[in-house]
């Protein structure tokens, strides 16, 4: 029985797919409650299966057989589809199915009053299917399919409230900006197939290990894959879509744009890490982009006033951390942070969603306050999430961040180390800024909405994981051993430094927003331009608008002019030529005897001239 | 010779003038009269060419019969002149060009091949000789012509008669 | 007198008649422009019968036939015109455009 279940592990994504098909058929007729339960249960079954696999692999150290069928025969090349179950894939299966299940449960409360909730749950099931398919893909082609499929789900869910113009714009932006990265990934896949002749990770890995590819080609492919990851994981300079994607419903933000899909970029790099290990240049690029994004997004998050946007920039920043960890040869660290981040960021988003519901769909943190008194458990949960992300021991974020810092320090890039420390400081500050603004201070005038159990259960579970997930790497490196990483020696002062700098950030937020020893407005005034830069997100959107949108628009105008005046002119000419000929013909054929006579006389004249021409000239 | 030249010039000018006036007259009756004048002048030309009988026939048939017929036609149809349309003006210009071209070609041919009448020829184009030739050599065409006239007479009556309802 | 002068006169008259046929808007006038052209032709025939290479009486005989036919043509043409006028209520030649396909 157990062996059989292992052999059929590839059926995990089919459960949500089945749910999606059922939900799609019941989209208009089905009862909301049943339709949502279908999604939750199917995802829960997938989760159970994932837990089973986790136990098999993690606890009993059994290898789970890959599954593979031939799909296309192109010449002598065979393209296969299938599933593989390496430890990180199983870990991702676990995270994705868990968070997805919890978010669906949460959505039952959150989307209760929405008329199109059936469609929403169908989309969520489709997303879960795509994401599970993505993580178990054994080759680049299959991965790319699911990669695009999650992009489509993201598009559909961000634009779920498509009657709102901003949601429409955000959905389009998310789709188009990630597409830029996807093109990079696609080119990388094409290059790999051209060079190696196979899409399979295993085959490609072997080719890389036996030095079949030149160093330059390897670097190019690695960087192009990283471009795909940049698009999906919202790294600078393609990060602009992620904050806008917060236009979608909050559970979507929690599931897709915090815990799972945006982590797909990091997962992709972890999955193809052998490629990056072979190319130090690519690793350097990953590290620098990651560090820059971590700091850059953290600075922006300092001044944002929309609670979801703060969390969005925080997500970008944390993804930057993961990239930094991976780029600094901290394969285990990066992946570990991906794991813990999925828990505490999903927790933070779900709490934020609950807060938004409690304040009757108000998202501006300046208009919130005093929730501690009325919904104490929410405040505690948010505090857990904030402590975790800020890196205060013993919460999970502390351990994963600590490992990243260690990896960066060992890689010897001290500027990146300092940048990461600064980002950690900013992270602590902005999270507690939100915390103090929302939960302390003046109580709201009217009573906040109480929340059903749908909200509470997922939050409790995620809080549990946020607190304790860190202990898979401490005191012994269970996770690291499982995914096959040898840990480097620890340095005692790094955890201390990380904790101290986080505490400093927390204290500063406390001083400004709780005690109000220093007025926030005054700081904003003194920092002047710096504040505006951060508040306007370093004008990246505006720059893109100017550089890409306007130039493309200009090009479009030129092309339109070309089309309308040059090509149109030619077409017009071609149209007019026969018409004019026809008009001349109809001018001749007007039915009047005199006209016909004129023509015949003209003919006679020509005849006469041609007969007598010789005589007339001679 | 001088007198003949003078007479030719005079009749030519009258004939051409009549024809031009026929083209340009505004009122239809003036056109008819000027055309009759041209026919008369042509009769004079025929006299110059020693075709006396033909000249008389010309006066009888054309200047008499056909001119009268024309006046009848004008009276029966109440001609009205409306402004020429643009396409008709174009038509007029094109006609002028074509006709001028035609005229130039013909004139060139005529003047490039001057024909001088042989001075030795003698024949008497008297009424008698015309009658002899017509009734001896051209008796059958003559009879056919008479039938043609009869058919034209009946046909004209049938065509022009008001339809009985 | 040369034959040329008569031929030139005939050509002038023929061309005037032709122009009339082409441009007159009154159908009656159109018909009589044709008569003018016929007259020009008659003049040619007579001139050739008197001053051509082979002076002969036949030219005049032909002219008689031409005149006969022209008279018949004028009569029948006018009859057709009147019938047409009754039908179309106009004598304008450019209104007679039922030849158009």
From TrEMBL, chain B:
Q: What class of enzyme is it?
A: translocase
Q: Write out the entry's keywords from A to Z.
A: Cell membrane, Membrane, NAD, Oxidoreductase, Quinone, Transmembrane, Transmembrane helix
One annotated GO molecular function is: quinone binding
Question: What Pfam family is a match for this entry?
Answer: Oxidored_q3
Family from the record: Belongs to the complex I subunit 6 family.
Species this protein is from: Shimazuella alba
Top-level taxonomic group: Bacteria
* Protein name in the entry: NADH-quinone oxidoreductase subunit J
One GO cellular component term noted in the UniProt record for this chain:
plasma membrane
Q: What does this protein do?
A: NDH-1 shuttles electrons from NADH, via FMN and iron-sulfur (Fe-S) centers, to quinones in the respiratory chain. Couples the redox reaction to proton translocation (for every two electrons transferred, four hydrogen ions are translocated across the cytoplasmic membrane), and thus conserves the redox energy in a proton gradient.
InterPro entries for the chain: NADH_UbQ/plastoQ_OxRdtase_su6 (IPR001457), Nuo/plastoQ_OxRdtase_6_NuoJ (IPR042106)
Q: What is its EC number?
A: 7.1.1.-
* Catalytic reaction(s) noted: a quinone + NADH + 5 H(+)(in) = a quinol + NAD(+) + 4 H(+)(out)
UniProtKB/TrEMBL annotation, chain C:
Keyword tags: Cell membrane, Membrane, NAD, Oxidoreductase, Quinone, Translocase, Transmembrane, Transmembrane helix, Transport
Protein topology in the membrane = Multi-pass membrane protein
Q: What is catalyzed by this enzyme?
A: a quinone + NADH + 5 H(+)(in) = a quinol + NAD(+) + 4 H(+)(out)
Q: Name one GO molecular function term.
A: quinone binding
Under InterPro entries, the record lists: NADH_UbQ_OxRdtase_chain4L/K, NUOK/Mnh_C1-like
* Annotated compartments: Cell membrane; Membrane
Enzyme Commission number(s) of this protein: 7.1.1.-
- Where is this protein chiefly located? membrane
Give the UniProt entry's GO cellular component terms: NADH dehydrogenase complex; plasma membrane
Q: Which HAMAP family match?
A: NDH1_NuoK (MF_01456)
Tell me its family: Belongs to the complex I subunit 4L family.
Please state what the protein is called: NADH-quinone oxidoreductase subunit K
According to its UniProt entry, this protein's organism is Shimazuella alba
